[in-house]
Amino acid sequence: MKTGAGSQVRTRPLSYWPALFREIPVARYALVLFVTALTWVGARRTEGYTSGPILCPFRLITGHQCPFCGTTRSFGALVQGDISGSIAYNPSGILLSIVILFWMISPVKFRAVRTRIAEFWWRISELARWMLLALMIALVWGYTLARW
Fold first, then answer.
1. Contacts (Cβ under 8 Å, ≥6 apart) of 43
2. Is the pTM of this model over 0.85?
C-alpha cells in the first residue's frame, strides 16, 4: 500500500497499538483489565460521577438533557456493577461500553465489522439509506423528547 506522494511502501498495516500490544495479545488484554480496574477504583473512591458539574452544552443552553446526557454516569454505574442504574442513567452507555471494549480488545475484528457495515450501507438503495437515516433521527428525537 503506497502512502502519500512519495514512493514509500508500508510492509504492515497501520495500527494504533504499539508494537508490544500488536505482537503479544495478552499484553493488550492485561492493559484492558488494568484500565478497567483503575476505572473501578476511581468510581468506588469518588461519587463525583453522580453529582459532578454539567458539561453538556445542549443542557447548559436549553436546560434539557440531550441523548448523550447520563453516559458518564452510566459508565460509572456499569463499572461498579450496577447494571440497572446504568440503564436508568442512559441505556446507550452499556452499548457504547461494549463497542469500546470490543474495539480495545480486537481492533482488527472491529475494523472488519466496520467495513462490513459500510459495505452494507452502500449496497442498499438510496431510498433505503434515507429511510434508515430518518428512522435513526426519529429514534434520537423520540428518546430526547421522552427525557424532556
1. 49, 76, 79, 80
2. no
